[in-house]
Amino acid sequence: MSHLHSRHRLNLFIERDHAKRLDELAAKKGVSKSSIVAAALASWLSPDAADQREAAMAKRLDRLSRQFEKLERDQNIQIETLALFVRYYLTVSTPLPEAHQEAAKAQGKARFEQFIEQLGRHLLRGRSLVREVYEEIQPDTQRLDETAALAEAQERAQEAAA
């Protein structure tokens, strides 16, 4: 046997759970446990293994950064929308006379309860309210679907590029 093909025997201690998973993987792949451990060690000791791990980590971090930026953008839109609504509401709402305030509170309570019920139903359906309102205003759903498909394709392309 040549020197290049000789092997060195090691006695290792590993966690019981790792041993079980190693047994399962060897049986599933139809290879020896030694070959799995040797491949894992070769990968770990490879000079470019650290670069590969770093590249994979950078890719994940980039994807998380893009997702965070989308969340931040959506949150800013929500804040601005709410602020605009509150400003509009406060601008156009007229004060009620004292005699009508109790009835207005009761009506407000009933409307709020109805709002919460509608919100719950809407969230269970899982559809976008913005899309529903847009469809009511502009029922050209084919154009909307094409735009949504284009936006999704662009997002996938951006994620693939990163």
Automatic annotation (TrEMBL):
What is one process in the GO biological process aspect for this record?
A: regulation of DNA-templated transcription
* Parts forming coiled coils: 54-81
Keywords for the protein's UniProt record, in alphabetical order: Coiled coil, DNA-binding
Q: Which GO terms describe its molecular function?
A: DNA binding
Task: Please name the InterPro entries in this protein's record.
Answer: Arc_rbn_hlx_hlx, Ribbon_hlx_hlx
Q: What is this protein called?
A: CopG/DNA-binding domain-containing protein
